Amino acid sequence: MSVYDVELITDSTCDIPQELINQYGIEVLSHFVIWGEEQYRDRVSISPQEFYERLKTDPRWPTTAAISTPDFVRAFLEAKARGAKQVMAILISSAMSRAFESAQQAAKEVDIPVHLVDAKGPTMSVGWQVLAAARVREAGGKLADMVAAADAVRKRLVQFVLMDSLEYLARGGRIGNAKRWIGTVLQIKPLVSINHENGLVEPAATPRTRQRAIETLYQMFFERLDVTRPLHIAVLHGNALEAAQHLAERIQNEFHPLELLINITGPVLGINTGPGALALCGYNE
Q: What are the residue boundaries of the structural domains of the chain, listed by start?
């Protein structure tokens, strides 16, 4: 039986570390990675590490399939069966995935109230909103309080993503307003930001070297935050743990955030960002 009146659901692009998912009783639904004739559940039947290694060697290009309406119907009904009275689902940007649309349809087909939140971003843009809602629920808050907490975080979120190449973002079809870079002959390290109002990728900078790109990522990210207030920051990576750890160490030494997480970006997003990608995502209180 559920210990909560409100079941909190998210999708596998959230990139929340597993220990926090377990701690707060968050239900995570998996998207799908399709590789030739094989189909995998994101982070379940294929690990991020396995995915990135294969991405570098397999000549076939993987694709993704979003969580379907029947998948959401099943999850909502299972929440009811566990004793939940309501469901809150915080999902990847509707501008990046059909999952939100599928969840909307599913909500019409079940006899339990479902409140859907469009996170207007991917990875820990989703994750920070989920954690905010989960922590309010843990403290005894109701659905309205959980929704308000997620909304407040979303309004302050900053996310930048650095890629080793534009290839993955372009081939994955999630390039958003950065499409003006397509066809460039420059050997750039594309840096993009997430617009948390429309949920789209926005071009940020085109540094030429990785060292310069990492420095630009760092500077642009912290320019957007009020660093005088408590910070919640996540360092995400495309199987580049050492680089992520170096970034996290620098952040810890310079800004002493209230919360600092490191996690590998899962396969569904990794298709778009590629091996070696680095991202910073966070907000100030």
A: 6-31+66-154, 157-284
